[in-house]
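ugh ok fine here u go
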Amino acid sequence: MPFDGAPKIPASHPTPVLDRLIEFFDGGRRWCQGKENGPGGKRCLTQAMTELRARQRTEADHSYRYILRAIRATTRHRYLIEFNDNCSGYAEVEQVLRHARVLAQADMRG
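structure:
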């Protein structure tokens, strides 16, 4: 645990990061498309991940890999930024994040 009391999330556990991303976006109220930062603290998927990791003192957690796998399995997009900027809306983003979480949990079980 760091000196400020914030726990470090182990590198082997991407699901807490995925859960926090879903929480951060607050049903889409804090998500934006076409730019990194929007009004009122809105963030694109990439920027939200960067800020969340910095704030939570998260080590390399592989959540990016699971999100990318979920994007490629469920959409026509190939890259995270391309997906964020061209998806149909936040519902699709949340669907991908939840699918990424399922993939991560399945891998953790063995």
